Amino acid sequence: QKEVEQNSGPLSVPEGAIASLNCTYSDRGSQSFFWYRQYSGKSPELIMSIYSNGDKEDGRFTAQLNKASQYVSLLIRDSQPSDSATYLCALGAGGGNKLTFGTGTQLKVEL
Amino acid sequence: EADIYQTPRYLVIGTGKKITLECSQTMGHDKMYWYQQDPGMELHLIHYSYGVNSTEKGDLSSESTVSRIRTEHFPLTLESARPSHTSQYLCASSESTRGNTGELFFGEGSRLTVL
Hints:
Chain A is mainly β.
């Protein structure tokens, strides 16, 4: 079992819809959770971080964390074509500074 | 905007050559990392450093080596490149934080092709 599991997609949503991206993890010691966006041929860039159970909202993005069920999700409201990218889930263990990445979910927002 | 730079961006070389991928950051970050990423695959940590004269191997075994003589500079070297080393190499840095892992800032990457 991989440490970080993501559906590779592609996940296709129409413009203006809500895109829901999910990530499950195996290490119960994980304490830091991140969503990175990676455009084709580019480097990852951080879009959300979440450290405690519940929801965290930032503009059109909402991260949701459930440590008991070991999953973290990212919701993108009012999806735009510019949101089309691969979204990487990443975890950090407490006190550590190394991140473990998932393979990413490819999102396609269609006009 | 992240101030972390990688050179070269693209490199095509023959088997057996020695190569060095450069990475520099101007943010004063103590922690620096090298990740390797193949198309459609996850990022794998191959080296990291928590400060000057500190280097550790990552989760993915790599024949490359790194050095950290200055805070801002974290070069990666392959003594004898092989086709299996063909990949995208991403350098990243982060601030020292107590407790939780901080945000990683990535460079634009170095795409290496070994013929």
